[in-house]
Amino acid sequence: MSVHGSTRARNRGAGGSRSTRTVLLDCAKAGLLLALVLGAGTACNDSSSPAGGDQKAKEWKTGDCAGPDTSKSKDGYQALDCDDPEATIKALQVKDGEIFAGAVECPAGTDEIISVKVSYGGDAGAGLPSKTICGRNLSGDHPGDAGMGGGQLVVGDCVDDQAKEVACASGGSKVLALAEKVEECPAEADNPIELFPSPGRPYDAICTAKA
Hints:
Blueprint: E1 9-11, E2 19-23, E3 33-36, E4 65-68, E5 77-80, E6 89-96, E7 112-118, E8 128-137, E9 158-159, E10 165-166, E11 173-179, E12 193-195, E13 205-210
Parallel strand pairs: 2-12, 3-7
Antiparallel strand pairs: 1-2, 4-5, 4-6, 6-8, 7-8, 9-10, 9-11, 11-13, 12-13
């Protein structure tokens, strides 16, 4: 979770005793969504496609696996059999594609969120989101687990004063809830963070308490 900006003190409301910090969330979240390279096939029926326009994109489903493919994108992935030694991720869930990264909601334990893009002319980086893969590492390394400092922000994670997710072992504030408004945070959230609005994101307040 990438956050850029500054904080500013703000009263929670009339009679409120907790202070609220407002931070600017990076709407692009370029590091969150990775382009999934589909190899020779594309899902488009376009005469400019070198595949001839009659190829179909893989129909992704839960349990499918993928691994890195940097031939077309430095952050690219390709479909692989789960027993392939190059496979690194298994799909926990397959969701519809999202234009706005903040609208993606993956289940707990998701280590990587991968955007499957339909591309024209073989340019995977310029494609349109078709599916979203909520992936879990096949290895024992799971940064998406609560408190481990990676993946999507969930209850049980920790954040620093700029709302950037950090491993709870390194400090920070504990996330108690994610709410639409600071006023909806539970009473024990003594260090709430208000985020500037971002398209598609289901929450604008991180309800935290000092660890």
